[in-house]
Design goal:
Blueprint lengths: L19 H6 L33 E8 L3 E2 L9 H16 L8 E5 L10 H8 L8 E4 L5 H14 L5 E8 L10 H12 L3 H9 L22 H11 L4 H21 L31 H5 L21 E11 H6 L6 E10 L10 H12 L8 E4 L4 H12 L1 H8 L19 H4 L6 H15 L4 E8 L3 E8 L2
Parallel strand pairs: 3-4, 3-5, 8-9
Antiparallel strand pairs: 1-6, 1-7, 2-6, 5-6, 7-10, 9-10
Helix pairs in contact: 2-3, 4-15, 5-6, 8-12
Length: about 475
């Protein structure tokens, strides 16, 4: 006898409508974990407290600032990465009144450098009129580029190589470096070497119209071919992250960033910027903040990658953005001798990597335990947590991994999870979804943004994390005293 219609199984599981808090508190173990992989992401320093002190004591973050962050193609479109990076760098030197001759090194991160100025760290020195004797260098680590710049600066200070370092990063997604096909490049080289009109015409005859089509850099993994959005949509499904939770995180980002702006919390962090060629119209604040958005408005936005089953939208993803950030770092001894009261000090940091074909943006869940162990602290000790918001789905995925006993056992080889992050202590002045995400600049922004807020609230300890392409994760513990 055929089963009655009401007895047929539902082909799809019930729709997940969990809130952000429910995802983290009640559904943490629905995060993806690959059984048998435990221990593979630990390092030789795992489980050891690391004292980040050199001959000059700890590494101090004396100050930090940034340009406004503006959507690509908008208010800052006439500024390349050198133009942008010079703004916060120049401001830090001016407001600190440090003798430029005391700066030992300039390190800046960028993902897409200007073709005509590939060494951003050195160009910042020259653009700002700093002594030409200051070495400058450039690093690239996707969205964690300026975190890597800061980490290298820390290591330079701890080793005694430097006492004062200018570090940061910039990105101009309005001015993407464009390349051409291999055939076009070879033909143009031959054209330049041709010594007669006939030879040049012969070279041009080998060109095809399709060869002259520009090749714009893709925000995609070289190893997998997946864009970051595609990889995060995959994570949202594998980690069973609800659309409701994602939209709630996006709403919190905007609400808190708007409140921070309106309260003046960003006044010292943002440097009003005058774009060329007129240099008349000052850009004084981030232009991605949406004070009028609501959960209802976010919930009706269509998925951008999977129209049937997707949950990533333009509203719960960070926008393509132009901007730059910088920090002034010193040895503790040097900062005290010059009379500075630092924003805070770097207690520990860690990088970790995962297979980009698996959970591309889950790196913070592996880096944070290492950073906390090296600091000799626990997540519960943190007064504030700052996490770069590439996508709201990535945020919920990592927060679930922090809280999941299953993830701790199967992925980290640990007997207990890192712990649950209280959303009242999380990204309290907004994150990348609202503020924007210039790839090379975000890491420095989250560093001084959490330190400024710790100072404003008279708190002491903070954890910050950044996910990056390639499956890389970064985490850092900072302290005010």
């Amino acid at each position: 006898m055929a089963p009655q219609e009401q007895d047929l199984p539902d082909p799809l599981p019930p729709r997940n409508n969990a809130s952000a808090r429910e995802e983290v508190s009640l559904r943490a173990d629905s995060v993806w974990a690959e059984s048998g992989r435990s221990g593979q992401v630990t390092s030789s320093a795992s489980g050891k407290t690391v004292d980040l002190r050199g001959r000059g004591g700890r590494v101090a973050v004396v100050d930090g600032c940034r340009t406004p962050f503006a959507k690509a193609g908008g208010l800052l479109k006439t500024m390349n990465v050198v133009d942008l990076a010079a703004v916060p760098a120049r401001e830090l030197v001016a407001r600190s009144q440090i003798d430029p001759n005391q700066i030992d090194l300039s390190i800046f991160g960028v993902v897409l450098p200007a073709l005509e100025a590939s060494n951003l760290g050195r160009e910042v020195v020259l653009r700002c009129g700093l002594p030409s004797s200051i070495p400058g260098t450039t690093v690239s680590l996707a969205c964690a580029s300026s975190n890597r710049a800061i980490a290298f600066a820390v290591q330079s200070i701890l080793s005694g190589e430097s006492e004062v370092v200018l570090a940061g990063g910039a990105e101009s997604l309005s001015n993407l470096p464009v390349s051409y096909s291999h055939n076009a490049v070879q033909r143009l080289r031959e054209f330049g070497k041709a010594d007669s009109v006939k030879a040049r015409l012969s070279v041009l005859g080998k060109l095809r119209l399709k060869d002259l089509a520009p090749e714009v850099p893709a925000i995609a993994e070289y190893s997998t071919g997946m864009t970051m959005g595609e990889a995060c949509e995959k994570m949202a499904k594998e980690n069973d992250v609800s659309r409701q939770a994602q939209d709630e995180i996006a709403l919190l980002s905007h609400q808190r960033a708007v409140a921070a702006r309106d309260s003046g919390a960003f006044d010292q962090q943002i440097v009003p910027t005058a774009p060329p060629p007129r240099y008349r119209d000052l850009v004084g604040e981030d232009n991605g903040l949406r004070p009028d958005t609501s959960l209802e408005a976010l919930s009706v936005l269509p998925p951008v990658l999977d129209s049937d089953f997707g949950s990533l939208t333009a509203g719960n993803s960070s926008p393509l953005t132009d901007g730059a950030s910088a920090v002034l770092l010193m040895s503790e001894e040097k900062a005290r001798s010059l009379g500075f009261e630092p924003l805070g000090f770097i207690r520990s940091f860690a990088f970790a990597s995962v297979d980009p074909a698996a959970q591309l943006l889950q790196g913070p869940a592996y880096a944070a335990p290492l950073a906390l162990e090296r600091a000799g602290l626990a997540l519960a000790d943190m007064d504030l947590v700052e996490m770069h918001e590439a996508f709201a789905a990535q945020i919920i995925s990592n927060l679930k991994a922090f809280a999941s006993p299953k993830f701790a056992r199967q992925e980290l080889g640990r007997s207990a999870p890192l712990g649950e992050v209280d959303l009242e202590r999380f990204n309290v002045t907004g994150g990348s979804i609202a503020i924007g995400h210039p790839f090379g600049a975000t890491g420095a922004r989250v560093t001084f943004q959490i330190l400024y807020e710790l100072r404003r609230r008279q708190l002491n300890l903070g954890l910050l994390t950044v996910c990056a392409a390639g499956g890389v994760g970064f985490a850092m513990v900072v302290e005010r005293s």
